[in-house]
Structure formats: C-alpha cells, structure tokens
C-alpha cells in the first residue's frame, strides 16, 4: 500500500513521538536517525553542493601559489571546465539512480515507482477506478458531515422546538436580570396557567381560577442556552 521499508530522518521532534513510533512498529517500518544535513546521508543535492564548495576553496590556494597573491581572479575561468565536469558527473549520477535503486522514491517507499501505464495494465477489469474511489470517498465524507451536523447541539435555542399544546398546565419562569447570573437563576411564579394557544414564540395563558377574558401573553425567549432549554421544557411539562 505504498508504505516505506525504512524511514531516514534527522531525529527531529516530530519523529520521536510515542504515537508515531508505535505506528512505525505496527506497520513494520524501521526508523533510522542520520546526521542533520549530512551530504553523505541526505542525498545527491547536498553532496554536489559540498563538492562545489570544496572546489571553490581551492581557487585562492592555486592563485596564491602561482602569483603569490590573490589579485588575478581572471584565472578563475580556468576552473570553469572543471566545474562543468563536476556538474555533468552529478547529472550522470542522477540519471543512473533508477538503475542503482537510489532514487528518492525508492529510498522513501522501498520500491520503484510504477508508471501510469503499468498501473492501468495491472488493474483488474472489475477493480474500482480512481474516479470511483474518489466518488466513494466523497460520499463517505458527506455522510460523516451530515451525522456530525445532526449530533452537534445547537448553540442558540430554537423556539420552534418547544411546542405547547392547548389545555396544558404550565408555570411561568422569570430569569434573573442580575449581572453575572445565568438564565437558569430566577423566579418560578406560583400561579398555574392553562395554555390557550401558541403562535410562534407568543403563548396565550389563562390563570387557573380566573374567568375568560383575563388571558395573558408570555413570550418564549429565543436567546437562552441549552441549560435554559431543559428548564423551560421541565416547566412546560408541569401538571401533566
């Protein structure tokens, strides 16, 4: 499945975690810590740069030995063919890396990179294509997002979720207006009311013992939190 055989790192903090090492052990991936920025461990680029730096360090010594000073820098052109030879040697090494098994893909995954033609020819007739896998992945992601949306509790209270039936016996709760006190603190009024009707957040109530025509209208607040929702539901179910 594209897992590497050996992971070569510089021992950074992201590669020494307990969970990461446990994952490497479960997938049979060996972890080898090498020197940081070492030309002999980190690849051809650093090795080539190291060779060029070593060649550049020789220029003052050669000029000083020939002219006893370092003012004749036009002689640097003499070393340009040598630099080109080093660059061509690096290119040849880079081209030979697939045959030597030292390409970055081989070092990382432990196998040669398969071409697109080989991958398509190796697929079975009934094997799902890349488009089918992407479509299936998107469907799973949509289901996951839908389930997560349904499981997340609402931050604000939706008054449509609190339905009060006509004839139901309820009490009225007045939240406290004091600063620093939550909406769950307040006063629960003693009178018991009968629900006459409900229109959205407006509920028409009639106190028990009073005659028709003395109805009052209470407003269900739409900015209470989840704790107040449970309290309002508990109060609305009183007397059933």
TrEMBL record:
Domain Integrase catalytic residue range list: 1-112
Gene3D superfamilies for the chain: Ribonuclease H-like superfamily/Ribonuclease H
GO biological process, one term: DNA integration
Stored InterPro entries: Integrase_cat-core, RNaseH-like_sf, RNaseH_sf
UniProt GO molecular function: nucleic acid binding
Protein name in the entry: Integrase catalytic domain-containing protein
Originating species: Perkinsus chesapeaki
């Amino acid at each position: 499945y594209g897992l590497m055989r050996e992971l070569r790192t510089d021992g950074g903090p992201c590669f020494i975690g307990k969970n990461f090492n446990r994952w490497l052990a479960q997938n049979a991936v060996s972890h080898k810590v090498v020197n940081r920025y070492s030309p002999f461990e980190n690849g051809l680029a650093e090795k080539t740069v190291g060779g060029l730096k070593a060649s550049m360090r020789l220029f003052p010594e050669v000029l000083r030995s020939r002219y006893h000073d370092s003012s004749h820098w036009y002689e640097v052109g003499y070393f340009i063919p040598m630099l080109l030879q080093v660059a061509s040697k690096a290119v040849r090494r880079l081209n030979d890396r697939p045959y030597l098994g030292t390409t970055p893909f081989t070092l990382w995954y432990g196998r040669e990179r398969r071409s697109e033609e080989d991958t398509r020819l190796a697929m079975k007739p009934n094997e799902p294509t890349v488009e089918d896998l992407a479509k299936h992945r998107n469907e799973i992601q949509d289901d996951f997002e839908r389930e997560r949306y349904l499981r997340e509790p609402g931050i604000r209270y939706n008054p449509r979720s609190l339905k009060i039936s006509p004839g139901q016996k309820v009490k009225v709760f007045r939240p406290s207006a004091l600063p620093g006190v939550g909406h769950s603190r307040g006063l629960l009024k003693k009178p018991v009311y009968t629900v006459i009707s409900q229109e959205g957040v407006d509920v028409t109530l009639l106190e028990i013992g009073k005659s028709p025509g003395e109805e009052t209208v209470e407003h269900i607040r739409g900015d209470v939190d989840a704790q107040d929702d449970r309290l309002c539901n508990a109060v609305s179910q009183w007397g059933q």
